[in-house]
Design a protein that fits this description.
Elements (H helix, E strand, L loop, with lengths): L4 H7 L6 E7 L8 E8 L21 H14 L2 E7 L1 H7 L1 H15 L6 E5 L11 E4 L2 H4 L1 H24 L5 H4 L5 H10 L10 H11 L1
Parallel strand pairs: 1-4, 4-5
Antiparallel strand pairs: 1-2, 2-3
Helix pairs in contact: 2-6, 3-4, 8-9
Length: 211
Amino acid sequence: MLDLKTEKSYFAKGFRLIGGVDEAGRGPLAGPVVAACVVVGPDFAINHPDLELIADSKKLTAKKREYLFNVIKQKALAVEIGVVNNGTIDKINILQASFLAMRRAIKKLPLEPDYIVVDGGFKIPKLKTPQTAIVRGDAIVWTIAAASIIAKVSRDWLMTEIDKEYPQYLFAKHKGYGTKDHLELLKKHGPCPLHRFSFSPVKEAGENRTS
């Protein structure tokens, strides 16, 4: 079970609002990258059985993630997402697009965190708020784990909506990741406008369709 050890260490230093940040969708061949920020204050406590279930989104079933999505939205002080589409990903690369999604999520918050903890080995560029990057943060920091759930569920929903527009790719099933089914469908149909053309499998599929 995750605790609030990391968050409490920053509260002890005088920070009042801690925002945990994570993203979903860096690896897929299609669709957007989505980041989330979950904010808690010093009075927040893991005092409900559902809050104890929060963990890295990759370790949870889709059904459990969807349930916890609503719990987090109800219990946290603030929750927001930022979305960056595939066209921008192709223009500025996936790493910079992930950072942009994170900044968008933070900017949309109704209250401003005074400290950010972000998953990964890199701080968010162009962010004035003090921050710390924590490798494997989604596995050890409650707010980052909560953000990973919000980001994952939000992106999965977006990919399910995209599936309605392009059902031939089965986006609702694989969410744009490079699964065997997706790669076969990509070769069969070629890329659609929501594929990431800067990613090698998509670029190759497009070139094969035009050659």
